[in-house]
Amino acid sequence: MPTFNNDTRFRGCAPDSTQQAASVKWNAEGEVLFSGGNAEEARRCFEKAVEFDPGSTKALNNLSVAHWTLGDHESSLCFLTRALETDPNDRDVILNCSKVFEELGKRRDALDVLRAYLQRKPWDDEVRREMLRLEESLAKAPSPGPADLFNEEGEKRFEQGKIEHARACFEIAAELDPRHARARNNLGVLHWREGDLQGALERFYSALELDSEDSDILFNSARALCAAGHPETAGELLKVYLQKNPGDERAWADYAAMLRDGNNGHWDPRGLSPDLSEVYLSMGKKLALSKDWIGASEAFSRSLSLNPGKADAYYALGCIHRELDQSDQALEMFAEALALDAFHKPSVLASGEIFLSLGKPEEASRMYESFLKERKDRDVQQALKKIGDAGAP
Predict the structure, then answer these.
(1) Are 186 and 211 in contact (CB under 8 A)?
(2) In sequence order, which ranges of 87-228 are alpha helices (DSSP H)?
(3) Residues 187/174, Cβ–Cβ less than 8 Å
(4) Residue 20: phi, psi to the nearest 5?
(5) Is the pLDDT of residue 13 over 60?
(6) Residues contacting 303, CB < 8 A, separation 6+
(7) What's the CATH fold of domain 142-198?
(8) Contact 358, 327 (CB under 8 A)
(9) Considering only CA atoms, which of 147, 149, 118 is closest in space to residue 131?
(10) Alpha carbon 322 to its chain's center
(11) What does the pLDDT look like over 143-202, one tens digit per residue?
(12) I need a surface site. Which of 42, 115, 215, 265 has the fewest CB within 10 A?
């Protein structure tokens, strides 16, 4: 599997040998799941490994890879940064950090990481080859034109609070290059802060036509459209934005507000790509973390509308019912998940817990035993053992 390393320098007591052994086991289980294509379950295993040993570079490495695979680039980069703090001389951490920065379009940051490492370990030929490749790539990249330079200067002026100077720079950039999307976006921001909603919409719309992939343009356009009374279009743009930036809590809050207010009540899945099912699943998980059960339920339901074969979506719906003390409905959802994936461990464990809460240990035992006949699993074995221990005289 990839070698992204993630780690934090552990500030408390060092883990004992038992904790380290547990971390190694959880990490190994996660690697098996990851290699089998189950990144979500692998992520949970890596998180457990890190809980037992926060200083395990290998476990946090794998946790970063899992986050990256699931589209959470912000968390992945966060773990890599922490890994660098823990062991700045780990080659895997260095190379993976470089890869992440490069894929995020931050090639100069990637180069800085490689160069700093080579100052400490100049004999590392593998890292040197990667640095030379990046340098060559940057050398071939076109130099910024006058419009780019004016736009960059305008952004600096804006950060300094020199609004009129920033406006002049953005206007010159747009004049020099009428297809400069970021300059138009920045002009839209200025109109927005002055209360000129119509002017902001015009700038954002033209920027979006020029570059529909830019995260800032997507987010600004969505907020302006929502304020202008076009929540359905705004919601669609937010979905695209959140797919690229799943860690943006502000955007999740905006999306949750739209769902609560009923602004997306006329949603129609026809014509939408089944791939968006993952986006809705990710949205639902974020909303569930903030205990917005209505919004989360809606997001999971939409995920299933686009892809009825998503066991994770049924499991997520079951968890919501469980939180609301709706045991029968929760068991129904977990059963749907297991009908799609007979070895969906989270649904097995969650169903067993509900059976135990209902005073039906036999049902829980049968479920665990059926799972263990086909697959070895420490968590399920421990859950079964607890039932046996509880029933022992």
Answers:
(1) no
(2) 91-103, 107-120, 125-140, 146-159, 163-176, 181-193, 197-210, 215-227
(3) yes
(4) -65, -40
(5) no
(6) 277, 278, 280, 281, 284, 310, 313
(7) 1.25.40
(8) yes
(9) 118
(10) 24
(11) 678 888 899 899 889 988 899 999 999 999 999 999 899 999 999 999 988 888 888 888
(12) 265
Task: Show me where the domains of the chain are located.
Answer: 17-140, 142-198, 309-391
- Single out the residue of 73, 49, 44 nearest to residue 59, CA to CA: 49
Task: State which fold the 309-391 domain adopts.
Answer: 1.25.40
- The encoded tokens of residue 163 equal 């609004």
- How many C-beta atoms surround the C-beta of residue 125 within 10 A? 8
pLDDT band at residue 11 using 50, 70 and 90 as cut-offs: very low
Gap between the terminal Cα atoms of the chain: 47
357-379 per-position pLDDT tens digit: 888 989 989 989 998 888 888 88
Q: Is 267 left (phi over 0), alpha (psi -120 to 50) or beta?
A: beta
Amino acid identity at 198: Q
* Class of the CATH domain delimited by 17-140: mainly alpha
- Cβ partners under 8 Å of residue 215, min gap 6: 241, 244, 245
Alpha carbon distances (Å) from 202 to 18, 169, 238: 62, 19, 18
- The closest of 68, 24, 73 to 46, measured between CA atoms, is 24
Residue whose C-alpha is closest to residue 45's, from 389, 384, 345: 345
CB atoms within 10 A of CB 228: 14
Cα separation, 239 vs 243, in Å, equals: 6
Domains 142-198 and 309-391 share a fold: yes
| Burial of 268 from C-beta contacts in 10 A (0-12 / 13-18 / 19+) | exposed
Lowest-confidence segment of 203-217, 232-246, 363-377 by average pLDDT: 232-246
What gap in Å lies between CA 146 and CA 177, rounded to an integer? 9
pLDDT of 385 reads 86
- Name residues whose C-beta falls within 8 Å of residue 116's C-beta, 6 or more positions apart in sequence: 88
* The pair of three-digit structure tokens given for residue 189, joined into one six-digit string: 């921001």
What the block records as the tokens of 332 is 């129904």
Residue 12 has pLDDT above 80, yes or no: no
pLDDT at 183: 92
| Ranges 66-80, 241-255, 297-311: which has the least confidence | 241-255
